[in-house]
Amino acid sequence: ATPTSIMVGTGRAAELGVLFRKGDALQRLEEVRVVAFDKTGTLTRGQPEMTDFAVVGDFSEAEVLAAVAAVEARSEHPIAKAIVAKARARDLTLAEPEAFEAITGYGVCARVGGREVLVGADRLMKREGVALGEMEERLAELARRGRTPLLAAIDGRIAAVIGVADPVKPGTPAAIAALHEQGLKVAMITGDNAVTARAIAEELGIDAVVAEVLPAGKVEALRRLRGEHGPLAFVGDGINDAPALAEADVGIAIGTGTDVAIEAADVVLMSGDLRGVVNAFAISRAVMRNIR
Ligand code: ADP
Ligand code: MG
């Protein structure tokens, strides 16, 4: 590609809110066969709501929600914000937790009023040796409805089943349909529950899902997708996404996301609307067509 055509292309892209940080991304984009998306904050709004909260055993609902929210008040995770918001809406008093710990990809734990409180995915309970009892089916039921299923435990006993929902962004279905029309495969990579991820992927017509990956696993998942389908673009927003953005043939960051993600990307979308991804591909094709 000539420097002039690339300049014109990147200029036109910028007018559409798509910033090419590296000129050769315009060329590499044309070779991409699969577009992999992070789920939370990229395909979805990243502002989940707590939709389900059911106490298990002889705990009281206010007692468990207060304990859970006291721990989550220390976490930066969007799930934590959703739970704390519900507790605040009910005017519950949140105690100061002690020995707070966030276990990436699993959940959080702390001591609240002398009791050991855990909140997170079922794998957190397994890891900490808490018996799941008959919870598996209740978790699966939430997940099939596209909710992220969580459990809370107090002093080693399950105390609540929690469901969190993160709505898909309004522009997401149209963006996926347009990528499909251009003959591209669309994939989703997430740390979320596998059944939840599949329910959302099915609703969106996504071709491949890699779920329950720890942050470090995203890069490996991308390599596998590349091996199967060819060159790939990855679209993400979070700190966790920076290694995947760097690994992808073209890394596309959402400009409303974290600085770390933006720094690692080749292309930055000025808005969270995923139709920017479609525009990036369209401009790449137009520029490359003019050159040949
Ligand atoms: P992603 O951003 O792709 O959803 P994360 O690694 O941030 O991946 O989270 C993966 C899973 O870990 C969540 O779906 C949830 O089950 C659990 N988790 C992480 N942080 C928390 C938290 N603060 N409270 C409850 N669960 C959590
Ligand atoms: Mg994200």
TrEMBL record:
Keywords for this protein: ATP-binding, Cell membrane, Copper, Copper transport, Ion transport, Magnesium, Membrane, Metal-binding, Nucleotide-binding, Repeat, Translocase, Transmembrane, Transmembrane helix, Transport
GO molecular function terms attached to this record: ATP binding; ATP hydrolysis activity; copper ion binding; P-type divalent copper transporter activity; P-type monovalent copper transporter activity
Major location category of this protein: membrane
UniProt key word Translocase: yes
GO biological process, one term: copper ion export
A single Gene Ontology CC term: plasma membrane
Localization, UniProt: Cell membrane
Entry similarity comment: Belongs to the cation transport ATPase (P-type) (TC 3.A.3) family. Type IB subfamily.
Entry protein name: P-type Cu(+) transporter
Organism of derivation: Meinhardsimonia xiamenensis
